Amino acid sequence: MAAIESVVFDRDRHKLILANGESRRGVDFDDFLVHSDDLKGMRPTDLKGALQRVADGGEVVVNVTYDDSVDEEYSVAEPISFRFLAGQLKVSVGHASDDYDDDETAATAFSSLLSPYLKRCRASVAKVEMDSHYVHPLVWNIEISCSPRGRDMADFFQIGKGALALLQAFESGELTRETTLDLLRSGNAQVLIGQEEGPWLDVKSAHYDLQSPSGKISIAQAVARFANAEHGGIVVVGMRGKKVPGGEIISSVCPVPVDGRTLRRYQTAIEQHLYPPPDYLDIEAVSTDGGNLVLLHIPPQPEEHKPFLVHGAIVDGKVEGAFISVVRRRGESSIPITAPAVHATLAAGRALLRRGEVPKDLG
After folding, report:
1. What confidence score (pLDDT) does residue 13 get?
2. 328: left (phi over 0), alpha (psi -120 to 50) or beta
3. Which strand (E) or helix (H) includes residue 218?
4. Could you report the per-residue pLDDT of 119-142, keeping only the tens digit for each?
5. Residue 352: which domain range?
6. Hey, which bits of the chain come out as E strands?
């Protein structure tokens, strides 16, 4: 028995007809507006067959909101569209940037940035060209070739969204703590695969063992490293790192189970072992393909609160509950804060006390 086509082209009405019977209109006679929800379950082969019946080939433009009664001039569309060229599916992403002034330079830069992410998605950059309809800012159309096997059009829409998120994150010239946070919270963790861990990013493939003293001390130390660092940092539980020459890169997303008590366990372990409590520490679960990640965001901390101390230490593999450990992040590794550095901080504090210069929030 033949499968019902997930989308067909109605030549008389010049519309795409979805499997549920709803129709999506044509724009400028050869483009079609759909909602992202329409793409779930839409097979690439069916869309290819439908567009082949359009006189000039046809393109699918994805709308943020779809209302058949609203004129396309006033509709809000995603900068992502689909087309079949020479029988191959192409995902087109529109990205605004004035950083490049010719196609060749832009193609080299965008391909270098997107390649680690797209390789994992079984895709690649096929072409980059400037959109002649825009002058300032310049808009670049990045055409992505995708393998259609085993995926629906919603999967390709997510590939396009991930590429766009990564391009926007790098618009400032580098991936920052803030843009990484945005990528994670928006469900785009996968675009970080292939990127380097930095002085403000640490990933862990599985939950800390928060039933054991060593696990509780370990998570407190992980937070303390960034609290004692200059720029704060992010700990992500549910992503795997891999050592490479010169450092470590993120190699995969491996979601972790999260229940109603997970975040509270992290919070309690940190409260029991880290002093003082970091300002504005966020502990949250974020969704990703296949499950959840646990995200701990440590903003930059006031210098007068440092050093952050961990009650307990792991010495030669053994837990020493009576010890105090003080650590901070340097590059991709962690180093202990030396006794002279701790003493200097305490001495400076005592000097301020003698002069009566006590910060208001510590008085």
Report:
1. 86
2. beta
3. helix 213-227
4. 878 899 999 999 887 777 888 999
5. 192-362
6. 7-10, 15-18, 23-27, 31-35, 59-63, 77-85, 88-96, 123-130, 139-146, 201-204, 233-237, 239-244, 247-253, 274-275, 282-288, 291-298, 309-315, 318-325, 327-330, 333-336
Q: What pLDDT, on the 0 to 100 scale, is given for residue 32?
A: 84
DSSP state letter for 101: S
Are 139 and 94 contacting, i.e. CB atoms less than 8 angstroms apart?
yes
Integer angstrom CA distances of residue 184 from 122, 239, 253, 262: 21, 11, 11, 18
What angle separates helix 103-120 from helix 153-169, to the nearest 10 degrees?
Answer: 120
Which tokens is 273 given?
């072992």
Quote the DSSP letter at residue 43: -
Which among 306, 296, 289 is positioned nearest to 341, based on CA atoms? Answer: 306
Same domain? For 153 and 295 the reply is no
DSSP class of residue 230 equals S
**340 and 196, same structural domain?**
yes
Q: Are residues 278 and 134 in the same domain?
A: no
Within a domain: 102: yes
In CATH, what number is assigned to the domain containing residue 252?
A: 3.30.950.30
198 shares a domain with 120: no
User: Are 228 and 113 contained in the same domain?
Assistant: no
d(CA 16, CA 5) in angstroms, rounded, equals: 12
Q: Does residue 2 fall inside a structural domain?
A: no
pLDDT surpassing 70 at residue 312: yes
Structure token pair of residue 288: 């990703």
- Whether this prediction's pTM lies above 0.85 is answered by no
Q: How many domains does the chain have?
A: 2
Does one domain contain both 21 and 148? yes
Does residue 362 register a pLDDT over 70?
Answer: no
Mean per-residue pLDDT of the chain: 82
Cα–Cα distance for residue pair 175/192, rounded to 1 Å:
10
At 253-291, the pLDDT tens digits run 999 999 999 999 999 999 999 999 999 999 999 988 889
